Known about the structure:
The protein has helices at residues 41-47, 65-68, 71-80, 95-105, 161-166, 171-178, 192-195, 215-220, 238-243, 249-258, 277-284; strands at 3-9, 23-28, 31-37, 57-59, 87-91, 114-118, 124-128, 132-138, 146-152, 158-159, 183-185, 188-190, 196-197, 204-207, 226-230, 263-267, 290-292, 297-300. With 304 residues, it is α/β, with parallel strands linked by helices.
Amino acid sequence: MHFEVVFLGTGAAVPVPLRSTTSQFVDIHGHTYLVDAGEGVQLSLRKNKLKFQKLKGVFISHMHGDHVLGLPGLLSTMSLLGRKEPLLLWGPEELRPWLDATWKAIHAHMSFELDFKPWGEGEEVLLEGERHRLVSAPAKHRIPTRALRIEEHSLPWKLDGLQAKSKDMPFHVRQALKRGESVLWNDELQEASMWCKPPGKTRAYVYSSDTRPCESVKRLAEGADLLYHDCTFAERDASRAKDTHHSTAKEAARLANQAGVKQLVLGHISTRYRDTGELLGEALAFHSDVEVAMDGMSKIVVAG
Ligand SMILES: [Zn+2]
């Protein structure tokens, strides 16, 4: 089952030719989500040939411009192109009035409904799908900011279709077996393990957003197969990381290691680091599987 993240914008604060500001496209089993919407996100989606009209939801981690300024433009284009399906939108309370004021000021009429869901307190499930869920938890930044976990659950058992067909297995029996249940058929109790392979291990992707290393993000990242963590600075700028409520490469890698994360991607890279080898080197001292994100880079989430 497909589970992929495309890093559309991997830079911090200001967009430069090689690094746009933050946004990511996540496809989990064909359900697609946008995670943050930095300036120019609609062009990045087009460049990467990603279909934004089919997005199911958008998650905005916080109201800093480098995470949200691309949203009005994207929504406006969706409307101009005639989107009809409602769009889920998670974000802080201030997001809705800001968008409403923008539509009013530019005399825009939206062709679809925005199903806005402001966050609550603490860790919370934002969406519970049949086989995946979105969970959010507070990060530690200058303003209210949330991290996001997108994970699989209740994966189906793999039925041997040819065998089931050859025995004329009825639909309801197949469905029960795929859920891993035992079911009475032909006067005998059929166990899922007699007909199916058990499901693969569930996978999880976690996005830290802008943050200092903190317990809440560490808990959310526990056992994740892939973590994208704030890495705005190198260790020599650790005091700036502290002052601006961001993380260094070392801090990101140490947290990933403590949380038992399989793969770490460093992102939100400050434009001051032309050569990111310094960041990578510092992180590799604390975690063995690290990459520095690049715009347009995609990662399949692999069970660790
Ligand atoms: Zn920020």
